[in-house]
Amino acid sequence: MASTVSRRTFLGVAGAAAAAGTATHVQQANAAEPKARPVKIVAVACSPRRGKTTAQGLRICLEAAREVDPGVTTELVELAGLTIPIFDPAAPVPDDFEKVAAILRDPNVGGVIVGTPVYFGSMTSLAKAFLDHCMALRKAGFALSGKVAGVLAVGGARNGGQELTIQTVQAALMCHEMLVVGDKRPTAHRGATLWNQGDDVSNDAVGIQTAKNLGRRVAEVARRMA
Predict the structure, then answer these.
(1) In the prediction, which pLDDT does 35 show?
(2) In whole angstroms, what is the distance from residue 219 CA to residue 70 CA?
(3) What is the pLDDT of residues 46-97, one digit of tens each?
(4) DSSP-derived secondary structure for the chain
(5) Which residue, among 116, 115, 68, 90, has the nearest Cα to 226 in the 3D structure?
(6) Sign of the dihedral through C-alpha 169, 175, 176, 181
(7) CA-angle at 110, arms to 133 and 171, nearest 5°
(8) Among 158, 201, 190, 181, which residue's Cα sits nearest to residue 58?
(9) Distance from C-alpha of 203 to C-alpha of 147, rounded to nearest angstrom
(10) For the domain with range 39-225, which CATH number is right: 3.40.50.300, 3.30.40.10, 3.40.50.360, 3.30.420.40?
């Protein structure tokens, strides 16, 4: 005797089967989708004075970077007190630079923010020595290639050469095939531009906003790249 199936029963069975098929498909898709790797943002303070305004500005950047995503971690590296001499291509790589280079080589490092005070419209000699020694990273298979880069500069006046300094540092970073970004909207210019007022940047509302925007921008792009 042929079994009879009501229309309602048929539609219910068919709907359940479709739902089960969809759920299986979603589970398979989720299983196949690669998990985003952790992202670390490293800030390098190229001031000869430890813990001063350049480090202060970079901490603001890093705090904003961590707010982008729980998977973003940060580290501040201060070059003050380290022995990083004028670059000599014939000389061995200094041990202190190698310590910093080891941090930058970490595959989880997705972004680097270089910070420097402004000395006569340009970066510090320590910043130049650091960037020149990064030649070792370029020669070692372009170790910084694909990482996101941002620049922060602290000047002794509101318009004390910060943007010119930023562009000079950016030019060096581009030689490593880094993805150089500026600060994001609403400021959206070349990078973080801070004004040192009495050895302090906490009263520079405009500069602080650029630092926050730069930190967010570097973290957001690095997260997308991951």
Answers:
(1) 67
(2) 11
(3) 999 999 999 999 999 999 999 999 999 999 999 999 999 999 999 999 999 9
(4) ------HHHHHHHHHHHHHHHHHHHHHHHHHHSPPPPPEEEEEEE--SSTTSHHHHHHHHHHHHHHTT-TTEEEEEEE-TTS---S--TTSPPPHHHHHHHHHHH-TTEEEEEEEEE-BTTB--HHHHHHHHHTHHHHHTT-TTTT-EEEEEEEESSTTSSHHHHHHHHHHHHHTTT-EE----TTT-SSSEEEE-SSS--TT-HHHHHHHHHHHHHHHHHHHHH-
(5) 68
(6) positive
(7) 45
(8) 201
(9) 32
(10) 3.40.50.360
Lookup result for tokens 């943007």: 163
* CA dihedral sign, ordered 186, 188, 192, 194: negative
pLDDT of residue 8: 57
Token duo for residue 198 = 């009495």
The stretches in the chain having pLDDT less than 70 are 1-36
CA distance 174 to 172: 5
* Radius of gyration of the chain, Cα coordinates, nearest whole angstrom: 24
Domain boundary assignment for the chain: 1-33, 39-225
State both tokens at 188.
């959206």
**Structure-block tokens of residue 169:** 């540092």
Rounded Cα gap, residues 178 and 199, in angstroms: 31
